[in-house]
């Protein structure tokens, strides 16, 4: 029964995480959301303090949850942020920091709950990736690279834990109206040669986000995955998912030109 399943959603203070935690709680799941600075008051679901960059914080958060609920049946790794800047403009330290949150953060939390899932021979892990993991967005390269890593990691993990009756899936949203644009970080380096293309691509990206879908659509997809006893690996969400098919069937040069045209890279 749904009410007997315990769900942990990272990055639940806004966007996909909050929409998902709210929907699952409304459907009878016992939901714990996380944030680096959770609100004091209790809302539709319980909130825990978590910094996915910290092994100590992850251990403390999962221990607190286990004390309250006894187990984690479903983990939804959603915490992350965007980093804008050309690849050459972005320092290795900035790139590492993004991977530490967007990729290794999911790895840390997954490792913290897997032993319990293995012991019970039951569990579900859903990682929030992005269409950018397959179709890279100019001047969002390290974000795209981290999401591609999440996809590869999830596929491998799915193979390794399937015989423990643990399901692993990836949700790949397109553009949705979340605060990721307002919360994005900007690379500290700037190179004048990239300035005009970066500005044009940035304007196109903001237009995509402003015209994006409701985050509830992603939450509903995650609910469907949680409710499915045999979910598949990948779930693309949003109107942009058609581009995943197009990338497979149209000539590579044509697809590349369409991306460059969309982001106004050539003026």
List keywords for this structure.
267 residues; 7-stranded parallel β-sheet; Rossmann fold; 15% strand; alpha/beta; 10 helices; two-stranded parallel sheet
How many domain regions? 1
Taking all Cα atoms into account, the compactness measure Rg is 19 Å
What is the averaged pLDDT score?
Answer: 94
CATH superfamily: NAD(P)-binding Rossmann-like Domain
From the N-terminal CA to the C-terminal CA, the straight-line distance is 56 Å
CATH fold-level name: Rossmann fold
The proportion of strand residues reads: 5-15%
Quick description:
With 267 residues, the protein is an alpha/beta fold.
Could you characterize the architecture of this molecule?
The protein is an alpha/beta fold and 267 residues long. The protein has a single domain (2-262), classed as Rossmann fold, CATH 3.40.50. The chain contains ten helices and nine strands. It has helices at 15-26, 55-69, 92-102, 104-120, 141-161, 180-183, 192-210, 215-227, 242-249, 252-262, and strands at residues 6-9, 30-35, 46-49, 74-77, 83-84, 123-128, 166-173, 185-186, 234-237. The strands form two sheets. Strands 3-2-1-4-6-7-9 form a seven-stranded parallel beta sheet, with helices on both faces. Strands 5-8 form a two-stranded parallel sheet. Helix 1 (15-26) crosses helix 8, helix 2 (55-69) runs parallel beside helix 4 (104-120) and helix 3 runs parallel beside helix 5. The radius of gyration is 19 Å and the shape is globular. It starts with 5 loop residues before the first strand and ends in a 5-residue tail after the last helix.
